[in-house]
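On clarity, I found the account of how folds are encoded harder to follow than it need be. Since the whole study asks how a given chain folds, the encoding of that fold should be made plain. The format is easy to grasp once an entry is in front of the reader. For illustration, here is how one protein appears when written out as sequence plus structure tokens.
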Amino acid sequence: MKPVPAQNLAEAAYSRLKRDVFEFRLLPGDRFTENEVARELGMSRTPVREALTRLAQEGHLSVAARSGWTVKPLDFALFDQLYDTRIVLELAAVRRLCEQESADALAPLRDVWLVAPGARLTDERKVAILDEQFHALLINATGNTVMAQMHQEVTERIRIIRRLDFTDAGRVVATYEEHAQLLRSILRRKVDHACLLLKSHIESSKQAVRKITLHRLFMARGGDAAALTRPAAQAVVVPAQARA
């Protein structure tokens, strides 16, 4: 049997750790060492270090020489700025799309979002992916590659909380309704109405994910409200369920 390439191991470690952070199995303030992670994942330190470094570059972890790696606290002020940036970019895209013939470019979105209620997906993970694709396609349809790159960077940085929007069945339904209304307004070139719908849609999502995130952290900390802003008191080993 051929050995698993180190790059594949690093990718596997990265995916597992990122999922643990996103799903709050690793909480803000939790600390651990490379050795602890390597032991829990059954890998050497090299791919684990590569995975941890990548997560640190994305803003999810910090590292110190003596204390090891720490899950960074959620910075809601930063998330607000990122959401505001997203609104600016997407409003510009909507205005551009309303000024030009965009029906062909937006056809893939019509097939997904302009469907009868019975044809809508209910799987939250699939809807989260489709939601990202919806907003990315709005940007990409303008043909502005610089704008698309900026939007992708923002998307990557808010994904950790944005995906929680779809853990609420009510928000899944609302997303379908809001996307359909927005898409129809763009196709009819009702620029002011489309911009109003877009801003309201993103603001609603931002407020929903903030509420859900705080609730998830509250429950993960055992219902200790003070622990939402208090770092963990001691180093932790990566939970055993991370290997499940």
User: Anything to note?
Assistant: The chain has a mean pLDDT of 87.
